[in-house]
TrEMBL record:
Record lineage: Eukaryota, Viridiplantae, Streptophyta, Embryophyta, Tracheophyta
Recorded superkingdom: Eukaryota
PANTHER family for this protein: 25S RRNA (URIDINE-N(3))-METHYLTRANSFERASE BMT5-LIKE DOMAIN-CONTAINING PROTEIN (PTHR11538:SF70), PHENYLALANYL-TRNA SYNTHETASE (PTHR11538)
GO terms, biological process: rRNA base methylation
Gene Ontology CC terms: cytoplasm
Protein name: 25S rRNA (uridine-N(3))-methyltransferase BMT5-like domain-containing protein
InterPro entries on file: BMT5-like (IPR019446)
Single annotated GO MF: rRNA (uridine-N3-)-methyltransferase activity
Organism, scientific name: Fraxinus pennsylvanica
Chain ranges of the 25S rRNA (uridine-N(3))-methyltransferase BMT5-like domain: 2-123
Length: 153
């Protein structure tokens, strides 16, 4: 609640219960576009009774539908950021190929810097309030294919 209070004090709009897989058609957004859309640690859930391949399909479907929706909501030079663990099971989600399928290109993949999100803490979903081990992790930044980007360093 303290984070929500801070956002409200900065005149941010805070919404809950928005399904990332259908967000582009949500009536509250009314065709709005954004410079950045950020999804930290997408996760479809724990499915211990399902095969590894079936679990992968569920997680990849979540990310794929999110990317499809986010693509419809970014401006011409906008970016979609997904922060994701990069080991074992998680690397098999193949974020870059999912993005490419939706006509997105990888702009950059960088180490996730939690300090960029003041007060951010990872939280286990599904009834837990504990933090989870999010190492190793990267933030993947995707943009529209064909969009012109100037990167100075």
């Amino acid at each position: 609640m303290s984070n929500i209070g801070k956002l409200w004090s900065r005149e941010c709009i805070v919404m809950h219960g928005i399904d990332a897989t259908i967000v582009a058609s949500h009536q509250l957004f009314g065709g709005m576009t954004f410079d950045q859309i950020i999804y930290n640690f997408p996760f479809a859930g724990f499915f211990k009774d399902l095969s590894r391949e079936t679990q992968l399909r569920k997680h990849r479907r979540l990310v794929s539908l999110f990317l499809k929706n986010a693509k419809a909501m970014i401006c011409e030079n906008g970016e979609i950021h997904i922060t994701h663990k990069i080991n074992d099971f998680h690397i098999e989600w193949k974020l870059e190929s999912l993005a490419s399928f939706h006509g997105l290109r990888l702009i950059e993949a960088v180490e996730f810097d939690q300090s960029d999100y003041e007060g951010y803490k990872t939280k286990c979903g599904f009834g837990g309030d504990n933090n989870f081990n999010c190492y190793p992790r990267k933030t993947y930044m995707f943009g529209l294919k064909g969009a012109q980007v100037l990167l100075l360093s």
